[in-house]
Amino acid sequence: MDTEAPQDPRKSGDWISGNGHACRLEGLLNPSSYRFEILEKERLSESVVRMVIRAPLVAASARPGQFLLIRPLEHSERIPLTISHADRAEGAITIIFQEVGATTRELGGLDPGQLVKDLVGPLGTPSDIRRFGTVACVGGGVGIAVMLPVARALKQAGNRVVGIIGARTKDLLILEREMREASEELIVMTDDGSYGAKGLVTDALSRLVERERVDHCYAIGPLPMMHAVCRMTKEKGIPTTVSLDPVMVDGTGMCGGCRVTVGGEAKFTCVDGPEFDGHMVDWDTLRARKSIYREEERLALEARSGKA
Ligand SMILES: Cc1cc2nc3c(=O)[nH]c(=O)nc-3n(C[C@H](O)[C@H](O)[C@H](O)COP(=O)(O)OP(=O)(O)OC[C@H]3O[C@@H](n4cnc5c(N)ncnc54)[C@H](O)[C@@H]3O)c2cc1C
Ligand code: FES
After folding, report:
1. Minimum-distance ligand 1 atom for the alpha carbon of 245
2. Which of 134, 175, 236, 264 is most open to solvent, judged by the fewest CB atoms within 10 Å of its CB?
């Protein structure tokens, strides 16, 4: 994915502004011009799918750290997914997602040649890619997919990237080859020791910071993992960026659904994030807000699978 600044979308036709952030509305403003065809589909593990979708306008302006809102079928909800790769020449974007509930399973059920109902993007503030020095890029589970474009851009910016990736077991580990290419050094961890070293990504990070100076840390993965990384790096005085994934609705900063508290202030993850200073995040409030819709999510899954 290109890290250079894209052309100002306001000067090139289709755009809206939510909370002052310009973005393209691919397909909504020109419904007949764009057909979001699935070009490729690959299963990376039992529940993780990689999909390449035709979306030329999104591909033209996507930058690392940005995401899109996608609606697989007419009746589906819109869900946020990170743009893992944007190929400007092909006019295609890659998403990598874990099938966890009704909508991600509907998306995972589509095949090459089929169309996605609609998608909107790129959304969110791009990653702050700078020359920090040595950067630890810690990715857990499907968070590795969100980390990959950031790690690539950090390496391209001249940082020494030490990747630390982890999964519960070998079969759930994704994107090892790609993360190895994006890192000077890659440490692989599995909870059960079935591959790489046995233990959590935080065990590897703890050994790394004892061994050498780390100037910045990126942590992307399950909330407890990011919180644990931040507790450790705060103690060591290592600035840490995290990518938050609360429930989102409109993705434009207007509904308030993705509100998080950072440094005592309310922030909207869709426009102010998704990346934030991990040492400033109010993790307890985030945990509580993320579980608000658990019952509705269970019912949606049951309804879609015909149990309700
Ligand atoms: C900015 C952003 C970028 C994201 N990028 C990716 C990505 O690249 N790949 C990817 O796989 N996911 C990503 N997510 C998470 C993804 O949006 C959710 O997994 C998805 O919305 C779940 O929808 P669903 O209808 O399938 O499941 P739901 O019915 O909404 O939820 C089913 C179960 O999944 C779990 N769940 C729901 N939402 C989340 C969440 N946000 N994080 C973790 N667990 C959740 C809950 O335990 C819930 O019970 C991202 C989220 C955000 C906010
Ligand atoms: S999703 Fe509505 S304000 Fe962010």
Report:
1. 53
2. 264
pLDDT in tens, 81-121: 999 999 999 999 999 999 999 999 999 999 999 999 989 99
Amino acid at site 154? L
pLDDT (tens digit per residue) in 166-207: 999 998 999 999 999 999 999 999 999 999 999 999 999 999
CB 219 within 8 A of CB 239: no
Longest dimension (CA), the chain: 57
Number of Cβ within 10 Å of residue 284's Cβ equals 10
Compute the distance between CA of residue 219 and CA of residue 132 in angstroms, rounded to an integer: 15
Residue 13: pLDDT over 60: no
Q: Decide whether any atom of ligand 1 lies within 6 Å of the 146 Cβ.
A: yes
The preferred substitution site among 120, 245, 255, 290 for testing ligand 2, maximizing ligand atoms within 8 Å of CB, is 255
Q: What is the pTM of this model?
A: 0.85
Q: Which two tokens stand for residue 3?
A: 């890290």
Distance of alpha carbon 166 from the chain centroid:
16
